[in-house]
Specification:
With 119 residues, this protein is an alpha+beta fold. The chain contains four helices and six strands; from the N terminus they run H-E-H-E-H-E-E-E-E-H.
């Protein structure tokens, strides 16, 4: 594996099929990957699908993970939901949105370490 290949972040999107913010999260992921000139590829997990790891099913929608880490930071998910739930995010200016901004995803790409395994 080359140095350039190792530098490409592993992106995952956890979503609920009924979430109105999933397309906005996909667009932000796409823009962030284009900005760093990485392949525009990520893995998606439907939170209701049997193939989705149990740990990911407990996340609100949409959740964006970079190298297995939530882009909103360690303290972003305080209590696992007991049912499907939407997430909210704050950008650097304090604005609230239903999906993470490109800037939040880009910051996570530069601050997360090596990928961690989700089981």
């Amino acid at each position: 594996m080359t140095q350039e290949q190792r530098a490409v972040p592993w992106i995952e999107l956890v979503y609920d099929r009924d979430c109105p913010n999933v397309d906005r999260a996909r667009a932000a992921i796409r823009q962030a990957l284009v900005a760093i000139r990485a392949p525009v590829v990520w893995r998606e997990w439907d939170s209701a699908a049997d193939a989705t790891p149990v740990a990911l099913r407990m996340l609100g929608s949409p959740t964006v993970l970079v190298n297995g880490h939530d882009v909103a930071g360690a303290g972003s998910s305080v209590v696992p939901p007991v049912a499907n739930s939407c997430r909210i995010y704050r950008d650097d200016g304090g604005a609230v949105s239903g999906a993470p901004s490109v800037e939040v995803i880009l910051r996570a790409m530069t601050t997360t370490g090596a990928p961690r395994e989700i089981t």
